[in-house]
Amino acid sequence: MEAKYDREIDVLRINWGVAEIEESDAISPGVILDYDAQGNVIGIEILNASKKIENFTSKKAIGDLYHEKI
Description:
- This is DUF2283 domain-containing protein.
- By secondary structure, this protein is mainly β.
- It has helices at about 50, 60, and strands at about 1-5, 10-15, 25-30, 30-35, 40-45, 65-70.
- Helix content is about 10%, strand content about 45%.
């Protein structure tokens, strides 16, 4: 699993697995799921993450997600 947070554009992206993204679907405003060719969820992208996740900007809440594999 890999989590990345881009502070400049306020986007949190979490990927699991190494499959190529075949399709993406916005499941709610600013929340996008990525699917592989078999329809499995392989990632999630959260736009405006700091506004959607309470206490997101605290180091304790996000750890060091700037290219961290977890």
